[in-house]
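Quick one, tokens below:
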């Protein structure tokens, strides 16, 4: 088979077809990890999710730009990682402040870094991914989990109003992103814990999914849906209502990717499942190669698989294990 560009390889797998090798996607690579892999301080332009210097070393096939709205919350800085401390969306009276808090979606400065990323992607043959949200996770993070949980039973209309407000902002961004030249949208909306959905499927279908669909229907490029945990009880809803073409990142330990391949491999491209809890973070290079080899050969069989970590490459991943994963992809991910 003629060698493909990274973009061709990724888009072929996204269509559930077989490219020249299994593509490698990471929604982000933490800069601290990138520094250790490269051996010096790397540059991370605003909005970019992976330092560009890494593409000289790793066979990554994609690069992602962050178009996600910020949480309306008090954020706490831990090193260079921001963590949510307290949601500020307490009552309906705070909705006006939330609307004023969101950045102007029509400000050209919000997209300037994206144009630079697209130029880099084209020069290097990479698939360019637009990282977006559609209103759900911004709602429960801005409200706080406890407040959100009570509202789900006592005042679900409050949740819907928040999702509608944030969704309108997301639609304006998406309509501009559609024309920029990105190859796929990466919809990052966690709906599950390791043991199952964060809320009942009935509540999800009644109060959340209609608002998500309203936003997602504006996306004119292929749709990849990301969630942590085990979303399988609601996977049918994501496929039928949001018309996604891929599910990511299929958390190791939460889902059996081999079973998902059997049940959904003819309907969805599968992305992810490299273990972040142990293999990439605490394991050995040899263990990394063994896990990657199994997934490349079994899940990658026939195409429709894109290898990735269970979320993204965190700072606490071992550099030697990421390099081992890189070698395994190049050795065992090739289709003959």
């Amino acid at each position: 088979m003629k060698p493909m560009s990274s973009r061709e390889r990724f888009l072929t797998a996204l269509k559930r077809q077989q490219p020249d090798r299994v593509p490698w996607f990471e929604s982000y690579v933490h800069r601290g990890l990138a520094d250790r892999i490269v051996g010096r301080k790397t540059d991370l332009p605003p909005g970019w999710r992976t330092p560009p210097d890494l593409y000289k070393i790793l066979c990554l096939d994609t690069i992602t730009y962050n178009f996600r709205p910020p949480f309306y919350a008090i954020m706490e800085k831990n090193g260079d990682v921001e963590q949510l401390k307290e949601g500020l969306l307490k009552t309906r009276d705070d909705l006006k402040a939330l609307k004023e808090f969101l950045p102007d979606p029509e400000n050209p400065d919000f997209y300037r870094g994206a144009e630079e990323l697209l130029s880099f992607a084209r020069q290097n043959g990479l698939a360019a991914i637009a990282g977006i949200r559609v209103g759900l996770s911004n709602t429960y993070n801005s409200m706080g989990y406890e407040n959100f949980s009570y509202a789900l039973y006592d005042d679900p209309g409050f949740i819907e109003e928040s999702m509608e407000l944030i969704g309108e902002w997301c639609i304006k961004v998406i309509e501009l992103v559609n024309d920029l030249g990105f190859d796929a949208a990466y919809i990052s909306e966690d709906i599950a814990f390791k043991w199952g959905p964060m809320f009942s499927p009935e509540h999800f279908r009644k109060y959340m999914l209609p608002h998500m669909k309203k936003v997602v229907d504006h996306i004119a490029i292929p749709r990849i849906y990301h969630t942590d945990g085990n979303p399988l009880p609601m996977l049918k809803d994501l496929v039928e209502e949001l018309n996604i073409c891929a599910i990511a990142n299929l958390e190791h330990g939460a889902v059996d990717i081999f079973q998902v391949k059997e049940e959904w491999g003819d309907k969805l491209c599968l992305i992810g499942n490299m273990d972040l809890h142990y293999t990439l973070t605490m394991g050995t290079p040899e263990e990394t190669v063994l896990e990657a080899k199994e997934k490349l050969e079994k899940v990658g069989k026939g195409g429709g698989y894109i290898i990735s970590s269970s979320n993204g490459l965190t700072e606490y991943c071992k550099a030697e294990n990421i390099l081992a994963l890189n070698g395994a992809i190049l050795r065992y991910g090739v289709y003959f």
